[in-house]
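Can't paste images in this forum, so I'm doing it all in text. The chain is below; anyone willing to post the predicted structure tokens underneath?
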Amino acid sequence: MSSQVLVPGGGRRPAPTLAMKVEPDAAAFAVFESELAPGAPGPAPHRHLADDEAFYVLDGSVAFLLDGEVTTCGPGSCVLVPRGAAHGFSNPST
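Text version of the structure:
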């Protein structure tokens, strides 16, 4: 792994609302920044069998489906999803 510095807005953009900040082949983990438009449904519930996943909410609110329960999280919230756990997320705000 080599050192890396990204300026705001930096990183590879595989989609208009997704920026890869640390690529999975560059480290033992990946970091990405994602923007969910108001009312965005997000991905359908799914599982990652090989990796844990963490989310940090910067602005607005994100509804996380974890263990069959929905929790709406605001700025400063951090959510950890262990590998194998079914989860989904959406932006319920207007």
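DSSP finds no helices and eight strands in the chain. The beta strands are 12-15, 18-22, 31-34, 53-56, 62-66, 69-73, 78-81, 87-90.
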